[in-house]
Amino acid sequence: MVQRGGRWRDHRQVVNGILWKLRTGAPWRDLPERYGPWKTAHERLRKWTADGTWERILAEVVVKDDSIGSLDEATAVVVSIDSTHVRAHQHSAGARKKGAARPGSKTSPSGECLGRSRGGLTSKLHLAVDAFGRPLAVVLTPGQAGDNPQLLPLLDALSELSVQGRRLRVERVVADKAYAHRPTRKALRRRCIKATIPEKSDQIARRKAKGSAGGRPPAFDADIYRQRNVVERCINRLKQFRAFATRYAKRAAYFRSEVIIACIMIHLR
Predict the structure, then answer these.
(1) Angle CA 249–250–253, to nearest 5
(2) Is the predicted pLDDT of residue 109 greater than 70, yes or no?
(3) Is residue 70 pLDDT above 50, yes or no?
(4) Is the pLDDT of residue 188 over 80?
(5) 9, 31 in Cβ contact below 8 A?
């Protein structure tokens, strides 16, 4: 039986090429020759996006950090959550439309997470980080999507992580006023997760207008809330990768993989 195909090009060379493209934001065709053919690097990115390799690598480095005690010794962690807009370059438009997407394809989803917001054509990245500012989970949406609906999907993504055979448990969520919704607080209480989220001014006014019927204000610790800056610092570090600061990828799946690769690099530094 004749074996088809040849040996894979060295993973280190190809991954370094992907990292160079991610750092510079340059077109694939401008990839330096020392990293091999640009089509090989792009195909490796596509294949490992389709089979979930990048997500498994991120989960592995998160577990590795926890196993050496970088995170809390118990699997309970404090998570800070925030989002950021990513301006989409004109090259990111023009992907196959909804009706033409291949059924069941992970690299050609029906929605490419492009939407209109104040900055024009944008995508939005929702990010959860640990107390040290290291990314744990990401969710990608169109730019006009709200922050609050993505909080629970981020927590669901965190629940899939396991540390030394034990599930990662979120002990507390620290977030800004965009997540200050009563249904969100109730959902966190059902999950036995403490919330450090300030109230909005209109929520405070409505509660006070009702008098004693308005109930007590939700618990809020200002000292813990000051630690929320770790997620903003993580976003700033991610945007040092120019392919993340501006979206050039047509496919949302490829762009999300690029974000995950940047998250992996933050863990490995």
Answers:
(1) 80
(2) no
(3) no
(4) yes
(5) no
∠ CA 69-244-22 to the nearest 5 degrees? 85
Q: What are phi and psi of 98, to 5 degrees?
A: -55, -45
Residues shown for the chain: 269
Strand partners, 87: 122, 246
- Angle at which helices 151-159 and 182-190 pack, to 10 degrees? 20
Q: In whole numbers, what is the pLDDT of the chain averaged over residues?
A: 85
The distance from CA 236 to its chain's CA centroid, rounded to whole angstroms, is 13
| Residue carrying structure tokens 């005690």 | 69
Residues 6+ apart with CB under 8 A from 61: 264, 267, 268
Among 42-51, 55-64, 100-109, 207-216, the minimum mean pLDDT is found in 100-109
Distance CA 252, CA 131 (A): 28
84-98, 148-162, 171-185, 252-266: least confidently modelled range = 84-98
Q: What is the DSSP letter of 220?
A: -
Task: Give the 3-state secondary structure of residue 146.
Answer: coil
User: What span, in angstroms and rounded, lies between the C-alpha atoms of 261 and 230?
Assistant: 19
Place of tokens 């109730």: 186
Q: To which residue do tokens 């040849």 refer?
A: 6
Cβ–Cβ under 8 Å, residues 46 and 140? no
Q: What is the pLDDT confidence band of residue 75, given thresholds at 50, 70 and 90?
A: low
Query: Rounded to whole angstroms, how far apart are CA atoms 164 and 166?
Result: 6
Instruction: Indicate if the pLDDT at residue 121 is higher than 80.
Output: yes
Q: Mean pLDDT across the stretch 208-228?
A: 86
**Using alpha carbons only, what angle is made at residue 32 by residues 30 and 34, rounded to the nearest 5 degrees?**
160
- Residue carrying structure tokens 């370059």: 89
Using alpha carbons, select from 244, 172, 181 the residue that is nearest to residue 21: 244
